[in-house]
Amino acid sequence: MAPILDIKNLYKSYGDVKILKDINVAIEPGDFLVLVGPSGCGKSTLLNCIAGLEPITGGAITIAGQDMTEVSPKDRNIAMVFQSYALYPTMSVAKNITFGMKVRGVDQATQDAKLKEVAAQLQIEPLLNRRPGQLSGGQRQRVAMGRALVRDPALFLFDEPLSNLDAKLRVEMRTEIKKLHQTLGASMVYVTHDQIEAMTLATKIVVMKGGVIQQIGTPAEIYNRPANLFVADFMGSPAMNLIPAKARKNGAGTQIEIARKGGEPLVLVDPTAPDLPADVILGLRPENIAQADVRTGESYQVADCLVDVVEPAGADTYVMSNLGGKPVTARMHAETTAKAGQPLSFAFDLGKVSYFAPEDGRRLN
Ligand SMILES: Nc1ncnc2c1ncn2[C@@H]1O[C@H](COP(=O)(O)OP(=O)(O)OP(=O)(O)O)[C@@H](O)[C@H]1O
């Protein structure tokens, strides 16, 4: 399938300041691409370049096979939903949704049919005669989406559409956007700084930092095989444990030695590790460290560690121990017997480890 959006060697500068550096990404029709990264990493700028709201400094953007360099925003066959909704306060919901069609000279019957279809899709039929000021944040968000939907665009662009909503509504709207994507099968590009939103919505994630793409992949690829320390640390909550360790090859595999507070170093043996340098950072997600007397799989190795802190969190309990000079978090069952100040037998899932180079953070396995 030809990509619906193809970005090649894109550069964007403001004056002498390079904001986006050699961006390359393509998406297939029906993809939900999420651009995620910390504040200032350039994700909104990239979205604005796709929309044509910002001129690009170098490279090319193609939408549905057509080069966009000379195409104005209104002719790009895209629809954009912003965090500010940008609704017309004096117009009814119905008028807000149909206004764009009216401006484009779409006939009345088509306008009415489209409005009806979209209002049903978004379940906002009872709101059509209200003004935006008489709506809740979530309802306004739906109207803003309705305005985008009536355009039938080749590509939907979303710029942090949920950031003005409270936590509960955010989660509800997130599910609605996901459902909408599933129903429409539309192609979407979505900007967020929220890694959970990225994981739950995306078919494909682009993780950015400092205007440079750090990794492109499915949510599972990004989560299970982060390309570097930045991605490992940024994606996942609580974050992946990143533990300084020494690696040494021996007969059975590679010995991974980790400093342990109040005792001899902890030694794990990884039978399948690649050739590693002497100093590595071992990455292990909290859910890949268990309490040893709970049933664990073959790839687990057991070691006693001193428990520093126990944090019950409802369904799970987080248990912290100091390893490699850092607090390491294990996600355990709520019934864990872990007690602060006492040793506990931890089980580490060596089948799930990531190794990173301390000097530049790149993934080693
Ligand atoms: N018009 C502009 N002129 C100069 N610099 C700009 C302009 N717009 C954005 N920038 C800079 O470009 C960088 C990227 O900004 P951008 O808004 O794309 O980041 P972002 O990742 O979307 O962050 P946020 O989540 O905070 O919106 C920032 O350092 C910002 O200060």
UniProtKB/TrEMBL annotation:
It is an enzyme of class 3 (hydrolase). CDD domains: ABC_MalK_N. Keywords: ATP-binding, Hydrolase, Nucleotide-binding, Transport. InterPro entries: AAA+_ATPase, ABC_transporter-like_ATP-bd, ABC_transporter-like_CS, ABC_transpr_MalK-like, ABC_transpr_MalK/UgpC-like, Mo/tungstate-bd_C_term_dom, NA-bd_OB-fold, OB_MalK-like. SMART domains: AAA (SM00382). Belongs to the ABC transporter superfamily. This is sn-glycerol-3-phosphate import ATP-binding protein UgpC.
